[in-house]
Amino acid sequence: MSFFNNFKPPVPDQENELYGQDPYDINCAIPLNFAALENDRIKLTPVIPRIHAQEVFDQLQEHPEIHHHLPFAFPNTLEDVCVWFRDRFQKIPGHIHFAVHDKTRPSRKYDLAISGGGSFAGTIALISTSLPNLSTEVGFMIFHSFQRTHVFPNAAGLLITHCLNLPSDPVSPGLGFRRVQWFANSDNIRSIKAGEKLGFRQEGMLRWHSVLPEGKEGIKPREGDPAGQEHLGRHSNVRSIKAAERLGFHMEGTIRWHRALPEGSEGMKPREDDPRGQCPGRHTAILSICWDDWVSGVKEKVKTVMDRK
């Protein structure tokens, strides 16, 4: 049987397209109820580059430390910020980037309908959303002067509540997701503790989870690494099958409620009124072989297993 590979790298958009259309197409597949993403303190609205990009750029220039643990290159220009908005969020239907507006600090800088009368305090996002598996991930960047205030707990709380509440909830109907996850750099203790305060549980660590941009602090890779010595790695905070362990895979933890299984499959029973109640769930064990395992005996272990008759 013949085959071919028709992949083509994406063609960069023209510079005048960086801000996107007006009105802006958020290109989001998640069936959000935006009215549920507001309380008396905070309002979440989609990031619109024409409105929010300049402030994000200015905040990063003034306080580069808020970018320290984020796994993408530091945006040195306003154009870099717009490309980040476009390529990491707007182009991916399972991602959406929100502007966080603090209604307790009035501001006339933004339209009342957009900000609720509040100041732009940072961003928060849903990423890697899987509607079939009813799961998503939260990421955030809160501006310096709004850190250690009510802003992050309220912004994250609104988003998590909307994700995890059932559609049948009598007070605040939600999406009925089974899982909301939080990946943090394993060295970012503040982020881990912030997640734990909101009720997140550490499930393990994904070793060598990200290749970091040049200049970021991280773990040094091996000689000859394809990404280069200047691109360090990071671990991310998240029972294994015997066959995988025999090959040298390392058990890193269990992702709870990771998959919604087909109807009729054996699995765990979801809660009442689950949006896919006929589909049982499963936990997923995380196993990996990383380069440091490979050069420390796993390469030979795999060969031994392969050579067995």
From TrEMBL:
Feature: compositional bias, Basic and acidic residues: 266-276
Gene3D superfamilies assigned to the protein according to its UniProt record, in alphabetical order: 3.40.630.30
All residue ranges annotated as the N-acetyltransferase domain in the record: 41-201
Region (Disordered): 261-280
Top-level taxon of the source organism: Eukaryota
GO MF annotations in UniProt: protein N-terminal-serine acetyltransferase activity; protein-N-terminal-alanine acetyltransferase activity
Protein name: N-acetyltransferase domain-containing protein
